[in-house]
Specification:
Largest sheet: 5 strands, mixed, barrel
CATH class: Mainly Beta
Number of domains: 1
Shape: globular
Radius of gyration: 16 Å
Number of strands: 5
Order of helices and strands: EEEEEHH
CATH superfamily: Nucleic acid-binding proteins
Helix content: 10-25%
CATH architecture: Beta Barrel
Strand order of the largest sheet: 1-2-3-5-4
Strand content: 35-45%
Distance between the termini: 68 Å
């Protein structure tokens, strides 16, 4: 049985442990909108998927669509966003699954990147 491979960029918003070593991720992707993807054996130390699947990572991902779910096959980290839990929760709660939205995609990346910018010193430091 041949599976079609899909490639897109996505921000990891949520993860749930499944079984002994698997995780189910919710991502907001550039081409597919909000999607859920199963990462098999990702919690094993030797997993090749681990490096690009942390929460609030922007990664290039590749997956296949199986009979019941999408399965992650590769990841490549593009950018890390450390300050984004509330934004991720809002997108997960408000966005419909598998509905791409270019405006929301651009807004998400702009917002996450602006959170990472160093804040200017306004002279409020202690001396």
């Amino acid at each position: 049985m041949s599976h079609t491979r899909y490639r897109t960029k996505g921000v990891f918003l949520k993860k749930e442990n499944r079984g002994e070593a698997d995780q189910l991720f919710t991502l907001f992707s550039e081409d597919f909108g909000k999607i859920k993807i199963l990462a098999k054996a990702v919690r094993k130390i030797t997993s090749k998927l681990r490096s690009g699947t942390e929460l609030f990572y922007l990664s290039e991902i590749e997956f296949i669509q199986g009979r019941y779910h999408k399965t992650l096959t590769s990841t490549a980290l593009i950018e890390k966003f450390a300050l984004a839990p509330e934004i991720a929760q809002a997108i997960d709660a408000l966005m419909a699954t598998e509905r791409p939205d270019a405006k929301i995609w651009r807004l998400l990346l702009t917002t996450l990147r602006s959170l990472e910018c160093p804040r200017p010193n306004l002279g409020l430091t202690r001396g």
